[in-house]
Every structure is written in C-alpha cells, then in structure tokens.
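Let us practice reading a record.
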Amino acid sequence: MSLFNYKFSKQFLANTSMTALALAVSGVSVSAHAQDEGAGALEEVVVTGFRQSLERALDIKRDSANNVETIVAEDMGKMPDLNLAESLQRVPGVAITREGGEGRSITVRGLSPDFTRSTLNGMEVPGSAGGLDSSGGVNRGRSMDFNIFASELFNRIDIHKSPKASVEEGGLASTVELFTAKPFDNPGLNASVSGQFTVDNVASESDPRFAALVSNTFMDDTVGVLFSVAHSTRTVRQEGFGTVRYTSPFANGQSWADTSGTTINGTPDPDTNHPEYTQGDDPLDYMWTPRLPRMDYFGNTQDRTGVTAAFQFRPTDRLELGLDIVGSELSNDRESYNYFAQFRNTFDEITPTSVTLDAAGRQIVAGTFQNVTPRSESRGQFSETTFLQTVFSGKYDLSDRTVLSFMLGNANSEHDEEQYRFNLTASEGHDFTFDFGADSNIAEMSYGFDILEPSNYFFSGPTLRKDVVDRDNTTFRLDLETEQGGAVFKTGFIYNDREVDSLRYNPTEGTIDAPDEVTPDLATSLTGIGIDDFASGLDAPGGFPRDFLIAHFDNTIEAYGAGQFTPVPVDASSWNVQEETMGLYGEVDFETRVFDRPLRVNTGLRIARTFMTSSGATEDPVTGEAILLSEDNAYTDVLPSTNIVWEIEEDLLLRANISRNITRPGLGSLSPTVTGVTPINGNISRGNPDLDPMRASAVDLGLEWYFDSEALLAVTLFHKDIESFISGDEVEGPLSPELRQIVSNYPAYDPDSPLFEPNAVDINGSAWFTSQPVNGDGAQLDGVEIAYQQPFTFLPAPFDNLGMIANYTYVSSEANFGSVVSTLPGLSEDSYNFTLYYETDRYGIRGSINGRDDYITSPNGSNGNAQEATTGPTRLDMSAFYNITDDLKVTLEGINMTNETERLYTTGPLGDMNLVREYNTTGREVYLGLRYSY
C-alpha cells in the first residue's frame, strides 16, 4: 500500500481492460480516472496522501455538531493501515487489543469493546470471529471483531465519542460508523489494483495480500457501479511460556504430599498470602506456585477474502437510490501445542525436595519436585466466519428544504468452529524442576525422563466439540430533515430485529474410541512438523526446552474416529437471544450568538424501546430429558442529548455535550441457563435474562484550537456516571441443590465418558465459585484527552515536509464487582499515540507508536488470585513509499517493528503481586508492495 495515489484525467483508451489485466497479473497497483469522450488531451495530476486524509478528517471534526473523530481513506478503498483497529488506535481515547499480532477489538475511553456499537453503511454489524492467541475465544457478545474485514474495503470511519439524538443508542463508549466506497464519491472511471507480500515475520512465510477496485458512472453521472475485492493470507506463529495462573496448595484445598525433607531457601511469610494461616500449619502450603508451567506454541493460518458492490441511481435531481453489498469470509486454522507440568489439583501427590522463595517469602521462584505428572495438550481449532450485508437506501427531496431518506438492510454473520484437543499424559510421576532465576518471565525447566518418547504417555480425556454462532440483523430506518427559519429539524424512526443463535455440538455418540497406546504415527514433536527453531523470537534462557511431544492431528483424529458432531441443545453454550428495538427521535440544529460570537446548538431526544426473549435448555436430573426455558424482558429508555459548539475566536472552539445513553447487556449474559461450568477449577456461571441495560449520564467539555492550516491542539474533559453496571455476583461455597443436579450431568463427572476428569472439584464440596451477572451499584469514569496535530510547514526545507499527530488520554474509574471494588476491565489509566510522518512527491515515511498502561482483564480472578491483568504494550508500526518513476511506486509497511511481547499476569491473593500468566511473541510483520499508476 502506498501513501500517495495519483489520479489522471485523460481519454479512456480502448485497451484499458487489457492493461488492467496485465497489471493485475504482475501484482502492482494502478489508479486511473478517465474523462468523458471529447475532452482535451491535457493531463491534470492531483496528489493525495496521508497528509491530505488528515486534513479532510480535521475539517469533518471541526464542522461536526458532536465530538467526532474521523479517519478518511487516502484514496477510494484505501485506508491508511493494514487493519481497521490499527487505524482506530491513532484516535484519542482509543486503545486496541491485538490477538495473534493483529488488532481485533477496541477500548474507548476505558470502556471495554462491548460498550462500543459498530455500524456498517448505516446498520449495526453482527461481526464475530474466533480467538487467534492464547487468550482469545469465540465472540458471542455485542462487540465487533474488526479483523473479519480487510481494511481495503473501506474509505471512511467516524467515531462518535459523544452522542446526538439522530445516532442510534447502544454505544455508551462510542459509536463507530464504517463506510464502504460508492461510485458517486468519485464520478467517472476509477480502477486500482495492488499487491503485497510479507518479507519478515516469525513464521518465515511470504504471505500475499491483494486488492482491486473498479468504479464508473454513466449517463451523465446518473448511474454508478463499483466493485472491489481484497484477499490476504496471513501465517502467524506465536510462541512463549505460560503458567496458566498461580495458586497455592491451600487455595486449592490441598497440601503438599510430604515436606519433611524439603530444603527451603528463603524465609516463608505465609500470613501475608493467607491470613488464615495458624501456627503449626505447613508454611509451604501457603506459598504461591505456578499451576501449569509450560511451553506454548500457537500457529494460525488465516485466509480472508472480502468483496463489495455498490450501485447508485439518480433518475432525477430530487431522487437518489443506492444498493450496497458487503461480503467477507475469514477462515482460520489454529494449531496450539502446550507442554506442562501439572500442579493444579495434584499438590497432595507432589513432594517438593528443594524450593527457593522470593525475597518477600510469598512465592516459589525455583524448585525441584517429585511425582509430577507432565501432560502435552494438542489443540486444533478450525474455523470459518462468513458475513453478508445488503443495504438498500435512498433519499428524496420533497422540496428545496425538506429531504426524506430511508434505509432497509439485512446482515448475517456465521462463525463455525471445530475444536479437537488431545492430551498425552505421562504414564507415571517424574522429577521436575523449574527456575525463574535467569528470567522472571520464562522459567528454565527440566524433566526426569525423555519427554519426546511416545511410549512414556497415554491418551487421556480429549475435548472434541463444534461451536456455531449465527447472528442475523434486520434494520429499517426512516428520517425526515427540513430547514425552517435558519434551523434544521430532524426526526426519524428505526426498527431493529436482531437474533443470535449459539449452538454447541458434541461428538456423535459412538464415534470416539481412544487408541490403546501412543505410537510414533500418532505422536510427533515440534521439530517433526517443521518447527525447528521454537522460542527463537523470545530470547529465552538456555534451560527453556526447545522441543516437546505433540499429537499428530490428522492421524489422531482418524484413530479416535472423531470428526462427526451432533447439536447439543442442553449445554452452557447453546442458547438463543432475540431482540427487537424501536427508536424514535427528534433533533434540532440551530445557530445563535453569545457575546457576539457564533454558537451552534444540536439538541434532541431519543426514545428507545427494547423487547428481548432469551431461551435455552437444562436437563431434567431424573429423566435426563431437555427442559426448554424461555424468558422475556422489556424496557424503555428516554435519552436526551445536547451538543454546543461556541466559536470563542475564529479558530478557537469550545465544545460541550451533556447526554444520556445505554449499552444493552451482553448477549451471553441473557441466557436463562447455566452459561459455564469448569469442573477442574470449580467455577460455574449463570446467565440472567432479567438484566437491565447499563445506563449512563455523560458530560464532555473540550477546547479546540485550530491554530494553523491543518493544525489542531485540543483538550477534552469527560465524565460518565454509569448506573446499574453489570457485574458478577460471585459466592464461594457449596452449590445449591439445583446447580448440583445440573453440574452432575457434565461428562467430566461420568467415569464412563471420554471427557471424564478424575481431578474435577467435588460436586458436594465447598470449593466452588458461583457467579451470576447482576445490575450492580454502578461505576464512575473520569478522564482527559489531549490531542495535537500539525504539519511542520514553518520549518526550512527539507524539514517542512515533516508532520506530527500525537494524543494522550488519562482515565480513572471505580466500579463495584460484587464484593470487589476495582477499575473497569480493559481500562488503562494512561494511553498515548504518536505519529511522525515525512512526505514529498518522491518519497515518504511515517512511524506510529502506541502505548498504554497495564489493565485489568478480570476483576474477579481465578484460583485464589484477586485479579487477572495484561501488561500494557508499546508498539511501533511504520509505513513508507518511494516513487521509482512517475508511474511506479514501491511501498513498505510494518507492524510491531520492535517485536513487542505480550504479557498476561495475575495479582496473587491480595492483588499486590505481578505473576506471569502468559509471555509470548508473534514477531514483526513487514509487507513489501508495488503500485503502478497509469
């Protein structure tokens, strides 16, 4: 992709189609614009690029009634970044979450992805995909997964950080509006073809990326057509170390088998970790220990294809009709391999012979142990996400001052994922040693036997399942706008019918038969599948293992007889939510004067009515038959909003907003059945169909100084008072009789099931954590955004080609999560974005640094940890171009140029520790491309 795109006006040559075909085959890019027949031969060149896209976005922000940030394509269908989320991260207040090295979701002003509502061509996007790294999973919520779309399909993104009545409710953090290109955006013939391939990543694959667009208008620009296509292949290799959280024998309800002969290096401080400690107890039982110290490998092969088609018709000066079609298909084959020593739930079988404690005496940082049972887990997840949206829209000028517009659309997204997880468990316990002395994030580990010999293992408890998440949205919208007496009045109605169907499939009965032994044709190693440089991107210590035994997927699936699945209506992940919403709004825009200076006012009221039906099933504990459950809920919200923009001076604007908005409950939270059971950890969660939305009152106050051409310095203060914040009400203790009956039916408790887990938590015991979402006490959120943008045209040549974009956001929050008071999940108190660019007609380069503080991912931690969190990353992305000739251009784009690692951690029993949970890297990705202009 390049930073400049040349448009040429000339006669359309008869051999254009042959020229385009030749360029497509060569994998380069062309952009041409033809004048009508009979036009002169004079050629006019208009240069566009990153700087001009910034200028256009700034103009949109300045003229907007509410607080809007805009990202504009440098040319038709050419966003300035390889990924939409990576474009959004440059916006003040926006932080992104990357999975497998690629942006997947966004956090706006400290609120998690579910608080951002995303639309495509005017209607909500039901876009979800599966996880791409160790922490990701199937998205069953409201948030959009931006990685399902290629960035080349879009030419504009608007981010509404403060609402107005004409923008549909639901985005308590923001509303992100995506727009694809339309032929009337740029009349005449336009064509572009581009090609790129990867030249640097950990996977050492030369992945291709291709995009093409063609549009034209006919019949005096009354008819327009546009087609675009984008395809990319992406191979990701993520490798690292993990502990899968820390815990202690005491927190696990156990004790070490025998510590009478244990050598202890350091002084234990059991009281700090566990005030329950009493004199005479074994202090080592209270030391914090890795649950599953392991080597991690995650490999993804991703293919993404997107297409758009747009048709516009303007039969009269008063009537314009449009049809927009967007389709996308994302397939991802993910193979995960983990080799871990099992401490979880087996402490009473393990004897520590020697341990070394940290300086505080709370954590075991090194040790040698007897009778540890290692296990290799091989997991294959093979998924496909398809998306199709069709939108029919139009507008009709009832008069010179009144316009009637409408939109009718349907969007469907289906995510289909099969998972095969095979365990190779050591036949007996062995000696095991780990040591964090050389690296606090990666342990050196050794085992008392040959971990690559298949005969030392047996197959145990596979997980074989299939998940299908089907989303369908239908939207109808009608808007009327009229100008009277210098004011613009708007009113409108919108209706949405949304349905999400989540269905779990289990193996078809009679198709699973575990092999009697682990033979060489069923088990291989990382080197056996071509990964002969495992951990090369980690800078791991010398004692970190570089190879381990894994299952051979194809042969093991065949040996088990797996691959056939049957829907399971009674399951935690099988549910249906149907939601109908109706909205009615009235809004007025007018201008007045205060102290003889212009004051623009946008004020309005939105009324939203929501009807929800959720259904699922649970199993009758006596007959075993499915009991269908269905519950309804309805609520109405009145949502006022007022935006004012006061021009204190010609280039100095005071912008203010006071408003009320909602975010509806997460879809998975609305199921009437049990939504999650983890017998091995003793965790159980339930849905709640009676949840109300999260409602918030918000105030924004900002000062924007447009102190020079294309320049801005802005400061915005914001406050949100979130009522009825949804949080989990977690209770530790025995299960209720109803829950015991439900849990007893899980295959983990059936000795005859291949999914039987002998170490599962006792159904009748007290080591259970039961959580149910509830509308809690609320949350407060306060923050400030500072933004600066300027081209340095005031500098002497050649430095006058420099320019900068920079922003900083500080957010603080306090929320009640049951008995826990914490910051909001996903909130980094400090985040910043900095982009420096240099552009000339011949060449250009830009680098973008994005950083954020650590953030909590789970305020209610697992396995005795107070919280779970992620270390805030700082990443550098870059883009460059060079015009070899006036027609030929080479481009270079890079993601994560500094090879930033991803680090997850837990905070221990008191929330004051920083214990590595996952530490891995995907390396850097660099794309080389060509663009040819004719």
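A brief commentary: The helical segments are 16-26, 50-63, 84-88, 270-273, 553-560, 737-743.
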